Amino acid sequence: MRIWSIIYSQEFIMTMKLLLALLCGGILGMEREQKKRPAGFRTYMLVCVGAALVMITNQFLGEIYPDVDPTRMGAQVISGIGFLGVGTIIVTGDNRVRGLTTAAGLWATACVGLAIGAGIYYAAFLVTILTFITMSFLQILDNKISKKTRVINVYLEFEEITDVGKFIRRLRSENVKIYDMEIKSSKKTIDVCTTVIFSLSFPTNRNHKTILDQFHEMEGVLYAEEIG
Questions:
Q1: What is the pTM assigned to this prediction?
Q2: Which of 10, 47, 175, 203 has the greatest number of C-beta atoms within 10 Å?
Q3: Does the pLDDT of residue 3 top 60, yes or no?
């Protein structure tokens, strides 16, 4: 009887919830850690276990004070986690945005922690597995889809500003539409070059690697790279 009383004791249930939150956060953080992302293994674990503790605390206060909203603290976690997520999103010098998946993963991890704290174990573990699959394996599918489309965003470096005009005329001769263009100067070591970020739309689906190879061969183009 004493064993069953321990199993169903409040302290034991709390311990199991927090350990499960630690495990789920670790599973999601492991994938980010392997890819050397800003928020990795420990960050995800802390977010998940912290969110679980918030929900446990909220439920505990709800039992003591019946008039307390049992979802209020959890709602603050959902909105507050955005500040941590923003810290993982960076924009590089060539306007490449990084960290969006990590930020979204942190938000999902916080939701998993809240679900565990509320005792919704099945949904929490299922979301953990689905999120892990999304971040790990669906990236391959995403790359295949994004690398062969009509639209491409490219970062280009030109020797002279006049080379930009030649490049644009070449695009128009091939019926390529220019949706956006940003020109700025860039200095690398002692050389100064003109850098341009283009948003382009081709008449048909094209392999992006083939497009970049063609850009590299054009007169006046020093460097070409696709950006997200």
A1: 0.63
A2: 47
A3: no
